[in-house]
Amino acid sequence: MKLKELISLLPSPSLTGDTGKEITGIQADSRLVEAGNLFIAVRGVSVDGHTFIPNVIEKGAAAIVCEEIPEGMKDRCSFIQVKDSADALGKLASAWYGSPSEKLTLVGVTGTNGKTTTATLLYDLFRKLGHKAGLLSTVCNYIDGIAVPTEHTTPDPLTMHALLARMVEAGCEYAFMEVSSHAVDQRRISGLSFEGGVFTNLTRDHLDYHKTVDNYLKAKKAFFDNLPATAFALTNIDDKAGPVMLQNTLAKKLTYSLRTLADFKAKILESHFEGTDLIINNREVMVHFVGRFNAYNLLAVYGTAVALGKDPENVLIGLSTLHPVSGRFETIRSVLGYTAIVDYAHTPDALTNVLNGIHEVLEGNGRIITVVGAGGNRDKGKRPLMAKEAVDKSDQVILTSDNPRFEDPDAIIQDMVAGLSPADMERTLCITDRTQAIKTAIMLAKKGDVILIAGKGHEDYQDVKGVKHHFDDREKVREIFKTQEQ
After folding, report:
1. Closest Cα partner for 316 from 349, 277, 353, 352?
2. 447 exposure class (CB count in 10 Å sphere: 0-12, 13-18, 19+)
3. Average pLDDT in the chain
4. Which long-range contacts (CB under 8 A, 24 or more apart) does 7-11 make?
5. Residue 129: how many other CB atoms lie within 10 Å
6. Does position 206 have pLDDT exceeding 60, yes or no?
7. What is the DSSP string of 45-105?
8. Which helix (H) or strand (E) holds 25?
9. Which of 29, 206, 453, 459 matches a 20 to 30 Å C-alpha distance to 324?
10. Is the dihedral of CA 322, 328, 333, 339 positive or negative?
């Protein structure tokens, strides 16, 4: 592709050098640059791509997109100077891969909790409705049933547009993706053409990055602010941040709720560990999900499908056949009559939602034993809050290691303990070794009890000092339960 064709999509670029060059590829990682490539110098959180401009010129880069041309470099390469190179990267990636998002019906899901479940269930539902679909999510990316492993909630622009192009090539009509606050803030969704946006909820998370809840909210809101008038914006109006998402959007405004009048309304009739009986827009449906938080997720799925023109009755039938996402309220039964639930809950609100969901089913018939930790090198302020939520809604709590990363796991546990009173500590054990913590919880359980193992969900590793060691909560539980059968 000619350089001038690529850069024609950029707003007011300042050009230096020959724009008639043939571009052989585009890169934002200087290590991957080859002769003839276009390099986009992005100012990242920890690394500034501008510092690598001399290196990529030496490697034979055909042209460079940047915000500032380094001194003495102007005559050594073709430069395209822009106001925001991160934004330019998304637009250039889209152009390079043939604008794939414009050939798909693309819906983005954002919020603190429920993104993965909502996006994945939309993907599952639309495939059940007979459509080829793609998914971009925390757990895994899918191209109509073919799994493509993932590293981040929202991939970098080049990876993302390449995946979308593969979806188009595979004949996909729809694509559903999680949109993280980091991705919005870092312009990783630049160049994408959305047909709809969904907001789940907003609670404290990622303050290590955003610093304040207000900044976090603004990042989520920016996604809706930038939706076109041809798209729809579906929001949870039971969450106080829900109406805020709709304030400045040009998109068609739609709402869902379990508590008040909305375009899409649901009511829980009955809960049990096998599922929930719901009424959605005056129609009854039995689903294989537990808890109010899942009722919200399913309502978001229903609202999105109807907003995309699907028949409400067919959507309800589809919902009744769906199953929970891996590591989200995943239930494992013991032959001794108690239940283990593995869930990804790693924020205070997510933990509360899961524990409330368990209480809704138990109704006082059985105890709750919760195993929970907190990740290292992340928002420290949520650690005491998570411990307090766990103790307030459980009969017994075991604080343990999660993904300590580069922190001391014992120090993380002590940060959690700081949120507990002496009375709380009487029902709390601190066991750093996660395997031992799970074994202890199971040993304490009796018939009718529920053991919640929170924080890691679908993850099959434990991140310790930069090394990912194999560790899967579900495997640990099944191994221990299997010994009970012998």
Report:
1. 277
2. exposed
3. 93
4. 7/65, 7/80, 7/92, 9/91, 9/92, 9/94, 9/95, 10/65, 10/80, 10/82, 10/88, 10/91, 10/92, 11/82, 11/83
5. 16
6. no
7. SS-BGGGGHHHHHHTT-SEEEESSPPTT-TTTSEEEE-S-HHHHHHHHHHHHTT-GGGGSE
8. strand 25-27
9. 206
10. negative
Find out whether 246 and 221 touch, Cβ atoms under 8 Å. Answer: no
State the average pLDDT over residues 145-149.
90
Q: 330-333 and 396-399 as β-strands: parallel, antiparallel, unpaired?
A: unpaired
pLDDT band of 322, cuts 50, 70, 90? very high
- Tokens 């020959």 locate to 18
C-alpha dist (Å) from residue 22 to 2, 11, 277: 4, 21, 60
List, for residues 214-249, the tens digit of each pLDDT value: 788 888 899 999 999 999 999 999 999 999 999 999
Locus of tokens 């492993």? 149
The per-residue pLDDT for 9 is 83
Contact criterion met (CB below 8 Å) for 102 and 86: no
Q: At which residue do the structure tokens 């925001």 appear?
A: 84
Residue that has been written with the tokens 């907001």 in this structure: 199
pLDDT confidence tier of residue 11, bands split at 50, 70 and 90: confident
